[in-house]
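Step 1: inspect the first sequence and its tokens.
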Amino acid sequence: MTSIDFDCGHERDARASGDKSGFENVKLFYAWDSDYMKENKLKTDKIKENPEAEYIIWKYNDGKLDNVFLFGSAKDNFLNLLVYSTIWDEAKKVLFLENLYQLNK
């Protein structure tokens, strides 16, 4: 399964701030979302952070499988990409997310 959430920035709530850069908002949203998962006893792990390209790749396990996300900033927009697959290993999921992100950059 692949999921894409495209946010134009004006719909974001208190998780992000209008006076921060795109990547600073990515980091804030990652912290908020991963903390929520931890509070709900789900295991999380940051896989990769790329400040130059303005994205973070991370995962949480729902007890069945890893949900691998890419949170990124592209042209003043926020992208939330997800891969949930029993077929691909983590390296393939990361590569897919990075390629998909570059298409939307």
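Step 2: inspect the second sequence and its tokens, then contrast the two.
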Amino acid sequence: MLRRLLPRPDSGEGLARFGLRLLVVALCAVTLLQAMRPAVYSTRKGVESISPHSEQQASMRHMVEQLGRDIHEQIPAGTRVAVVDEDPNWRLRLAAAATDQGVVVVGDTIAPGAMTDPSAQLEIWRESDPAAPNGVRLMTRKPVTS
């Protein structure tokens, strides 16, 4: 490849053209490396999430999987639920687990203290319970209306 990049002495190619060709190759290489950054980052994060490097990551994954199983067992697919957990990270995890099980998540799962969507049929949240499998239990209730 390098041999093709360098000008031959008998080609009559000037130094300016060679410099321009070298600049184009360098820009292409930089563009390719910049385009690969998100893919490399996503791959690294994906591998970190499934490899049990720490006990805490493995424990968190087991809790989320347990909540997903509980949602599957307790809530029929298609039910409209509002996630009302106090912790915003757990609201997102519960919303993702519910969506994976075919449950429709309604309302704002990000904003703290957001009002429950009036179309929600159930409210869900998680509670720590040492007696529950993996130390966490899914709680459900009919939405409280004022």
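Step 3: confirm your contrast with the notes below.
The chain has two domains: 2-50, 55-141. The longest helix spans residues 15-50.
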